[in-house]
Amino acid sequence: MYLDSSEPLALALELGYTPVSAADLQIRYRGIQMGEEKQRSLLLDSASRFPLPHDLVVGLPGVRFSYGTAGFRSEGSILVSTVYRAGVLAALRSLKTGSAIGLTITASHNPVSDNGVKIADPDGGMMVQRWEPFADALANAPDSEHLLQLVVQFVEEENIPFGGVQSAEVLLGRDTRPSGEALLEAAKHVCLAERLMSNLEKRLTYCWIKNHCFGCRCLMNLVPRERITDSLDTELVVDGANGVGGDKLEQLKKMVTGLDISVKNTGKKGEGVLNENCGADYVQKEKVVPSGFGPEDVGIRCASLDGDADRLVYFLIPSASSVNIDLIDGDKILSLFAVFIKEQLDVLYKDSDSNNKPPVRLGIVQTAYANGASTAYLKRLGLEVVFTPTGVKYLHKKAAEYDIGIYFEANGHGTVLFSENFLSGLECRSNELASASSDSL
User: What enzyme class is recorded for this protein (predicted)?
Assistant: First the structure.
């Protein structure tokens, strides 16, 4: 297996940051195309270098790796074999799809001693669920021979090109956890297994994402360059959870002129420990002032990210003597998005010919753990609210069925999805309004 990259990087990597740590490293590898037997031999050899932890080999009860919401997670020191095997999984997924696959080493909001590995499909979403049983079997294969048998069988079942004719592309990244460096090496090993075979045609390239990429510029163009009104509160204090988000915000705030952003718990040496008494999970569950915040932050809009910056909650500190906070969690963020988008749609299509155009399907997706008051409020607005089992994989899949799908968990993990159909309709509506405006002149 070898890696080669010529396509644009995944959208999540298009933010144009200048890397400052291994967390930003993206790896591309060009190898020699080899036959299927050679591939099997290399896989067998490299897999033998990353044996299962002893407890799994002897089959102790309850000791087993399981593919969760988006990957595997455990105590960082026992994950080396799992991350290596996730690299095999990602390479096979890339060969199957013919596209780049993302592999990230992170444990999100969990303690710094934990770590994990997540795999993302070419669309930026999670790996398809029907591959999860294979992922479980791969992670728990007792030895390299069993692992090879699993791979060979799965390659045949899925009709995956395994002979080296087609190249695989895996984008690697990690967060700031100390265990991440060794785990990254394990993930890289599956890509570099044949590196000793020849030095002539093989090279390892570290690829840094350039500043001011197209996607980043487009995003920044949406931000007002000047203050719209003097009454707009532009001050924002962000808790970076001592993770990857803090450093990125330090860079991003230089580009966003409409907000006065200050960052605490940035992860700099001596400032604190990842997710310890800080971060979105801590703030949302404990509802207390995070570490690093004090009287100077009273009454100011504050926000918390988690360790890998995929959760967001807002809060206010009501007084200098207060330990507790006024929390704006994911349920409230969802409600704000829903109200705002509904209002914009009402304005956008107010004068349109509704008889000739199907209505925009706006869907709100929640789980049984959502705040019941938020559900009742959204239904009173006339919005369609549906429920899924707990887990982002279910929420995201359901939200994608709508023209505009909104989901957020209370922990601040969520997003807004816009379908291609809606975006095409939006462009048509924009042209209609421009034409009407021109005719009125």
Answer: isomerase
- Segment 63-67 shows an average pLDDT of 85
Final residue of a domain: which of 169, 191, 207? 207
Is the predicted pLDDT of residue 214 greater than 60, yes or no? no
Q: What residues are annotated to the active site? A: 108
Whether 193 and 40 have beta carbons less than 8 Å apart is answered as no
Could you give the CA distance from residue 216 to residue 214 in angstroms, rounded to a whole number?
Answer: 5
* Secondary structure letter of residue 324 according to DSSP: B
Are 170 and 87 in contact by the 8 Å Cβ rule? The answer is yes
Cβ–Cβ < 8 Å for 417, 402: yes
Q: Name residues whose C-beta falls within 8 Å of residue 227's C-beta, 6 or more positions apart in sequence.
A: 234, 258
Cα–Cα nearest to 134, from 69, 88, 191: 88
Q: Is residue 3 over pLDDT 60?
A: no
Domain assignment of residue 139, yes or no:
yes
DSSP 8-class letter at 40 = H
The token pair that represents 35 in the structure block: 């036959």
**Count of domains observed in the chain:** 3
Tokens representing 16 are: 């144009």
Give the pLDDT confidence score for residue 19 in this predicted structure: 32
Tell me whether residue 216 is in a domain.
no
Task: Name the region of 23 (left: φ>0; alpha: ψ -120 to 50; beta: rest).
Answer: alpha
* Vertex 294: Cα angle to 291 and 298 (nearest 5): 125
Q: Which domain holds residue 265?
A: 232-328
Q: Give the whole-angstrom CA distance, residue 396 versus residue 413.
A: 11
Query: Looking at residue 361, which CATH number applies to its domain?
Result: 3.40.120
Compute the distance between CA of residue 151 and CA of residue 162 in angstroms, rounded to an integer: 10
SS3 304: strand
- Residue type at 87 in one-letter notation: G
pTM: 0.78
Name the H helices within 236-371: 244-252, 280-286, 330-348
Residue with tokens 């934990």: 114
User: How many Cβ atoms from other residues are within 10 Å of residue 364's Cβ?
Assistant: 28
Q: Where are the alpha helices (DSSP H) in 270-419?
A: 280-286, 330-348, 372-380, 392-399
Let me know if 348 is exposed, middle or buried by CB neighbors in 10 A (0-12, 13-18, 19+). middle
